[in-house]
Design goal:
Blueprint (H helix, E strand, L loop, with lengths): L2 H16 L7 H15 L13 H27 L11 E6 L3 H4 L6 H11 L1 H15 L2 E5 L15 H8 L26 H4 L4 E3 L13 H7 L4 E7 L1 H14 L3 E10 L2 E2 L2 E2 H12 L2 E3 L1 H6 L3
């Protein structure tokens, strides 16, 4: 795990412990530099306080000692997690989930919670890089889109984010045969990707309905085109991408993830990017950055 991700985890831990948040400068003002030092070299930790309250000092000291143990443990755990690696060959395809306006356009209904991550990761640009790599190197691309038809709004129960997606009209379109109003809608492709998606090297499979591909024909289409390995990217990182990762593994595919060609929602107390990156590392055969993946073809 990188330093910023670990510090973000520590920040959440701090907020829970002290009932404070980083708007008060607790993490930055008290021990941000100390934590960075400990992440670089766990054996050398310097704790600097600028807190008048003796009670608060004592509480922070105990918390930092706990964090030192957690940091040391995380280093040991990271060293124990193997990286099986991933070799791109003629049986490899790129799978992209939800490259649609509601996720990737500033006009999309989720931009308020996901836009920050999309911009930070350069997700839009990195996904286009994957399309270009695929086209230039004869790699097939499969798109697993997310659509909600009118009859999907008749469901009698939903999970938390299913309900949110339905409430805000995310990915809405009429039905399978009705494209009226689809062009330029939140369910439509981001415009800059259309020139790739309309070409023969791209296959658009049936829509997934919740997060994973269990209910669509993605695995069937991959198998029918003799694909055994998948490089996974798209939206959103800790939901549809991760769910596709897990199901494709269960279906017997070898899977790598391009982590900065994804993005996840960030809300107070919750950072989907951290959750996604941890599980990519735990589950996938390999985790690339876009530059690392691109370098394979130079």
């Amino acid at each position: 795990m990188n330093i910023s991700a670990k510090i973000a985890q520590i920040q959440l831990f701090t907020e829970a412990t002290f009932g404070l948040n980083n708007n008060l400068g607790l993490l930055d003002g008290i021990f941000h530099n100390s934590i960075k030092m400990s992440l670089h070299n766990p054996s050398k930790i310097k704790i600097i306080f600028n807190v008048k309250s003796r009670k608060m000092k004592s509480k922070i000291t105990k918390t930092l000692l706990m964090l030192m143990v957690l940091i040391g443990s995380s280093y040991k755990l990271s060293a124990q997690i193997p990286d099986p690696g991933f070799k791109v060959d003629k049986t490899t395809a790129i799978v992209i989930t939800d490259p649609q306006n509601d996720f990737l356009s500033p006009k999309g209904v989720t931009w308020g919670v996901i836009g920050e991550s999309v911009i930070k990761n350069k997700t839009v640009e990195n996904l286009e890089t994957l399309f270009k790599i695929a086209e230039s190197n004869g790699i097939k691309v499969f798109i697993s889109p997310h659509y909600y038809y009118e009859h999907d709004h008749k469901w009698h129960f939903e999970g938390a984010l299913e309900k949110l997606m339905h409430d805000i009209g995310m990915f809405d379109r009429g039905d399978q045969l009705n494209k009226e109003g689809f062009e330029g809608s939140g369910a439509d492709w981001l415009p800059r990707y259309k020139k790739y998606i309309e070409k023969d090297f791209v296959t658009v499979v049936g829509p997934h309905k919740v997060y994973g591909p269990e209910q669509n024909d993605l695995s069937l289409q991959l198998r029918k085109q003799k694909i055994d390995k998948v490089v996974l990217a798209g939206m959103s990182g800790n939901l549809c991408v991760e769910s596709h990762l897990r199901e494709l593994l269960e279906d017997g595919f070898e899977v790598a993830v391009v982590k900065d060609a994804t993005a996840s929602a960030v809300a107070p107390g919750f950072d989907g990017n951290i959750a996604a990156e941890i599980n990519y590392r735990f589950v996938a055969s390999h985790v690339y950055t876009t530059k690392e993946f691109e370098s394979l073809f130079k």
